[in-house]
Amino acid sequence: xxxxxxxxxxxxxxxxxxxxxxxxxxxxxxxxxxxxxxxxxxxxxxxxxxxxxxxxxxxxxxxxxxxxxxxxxxxxxxxxxxxxxxxxxxxxxxxxxxxxxxxxxxxxxxxxxxxxxxxxxxxxxxxxxxxxxxxxxxxxxxxxxxxxxxxxxxxxxxxx
Length: 160
What we know:
This protein is of the alpha+beta class. The chain has a single domain (3-122), classed as 3-Layer(aba) Sandwich (Aminopeptidase), CATH 3.40.630.30. The protein is 29% helix and 32% strand. It has helices spanning 20-27, 46-59, 103-118, 133-141; strands at residues 3-6, 10-14, 63-68, 74-84, 87-94, 123-128, 145-149, 154-159. Strands 1-2-3-4-5-6-8-7 form an eight-stranded mixed beta sheet, sandwiched between helices.
């Protein structure tokens, strides 16, 4: 796996077909992940995940798999989507067994710094489910502030 950058406890690596089984566990976990990433309880197949990996690699998209340094276990994925000019949307998904261990905060901080300092972004924004209080807490702790709200989403951003 090709490492792109790292933080204290996480290696951020290029997405890879080697992790497709882990990706499927992640995106097909409705209770802990899927319902928060806008998939509407959709079940993904191995073929779909392989195509997703191939597409992201072909686009050289800023999406990274997170690997726990201590154990080498898969934590989840984090990405910068909809990159336009000097702005991008952050998305993150963490496996159920790696939630509530501080990885979300560490990952959001690391990717935010990477995006602003290495990729030259001036603004990173996100949207989250208003019922996802854990995520909202993490984003606020990482310096993101709310700029809009609807029944379906809370919109947050950080700027340089």
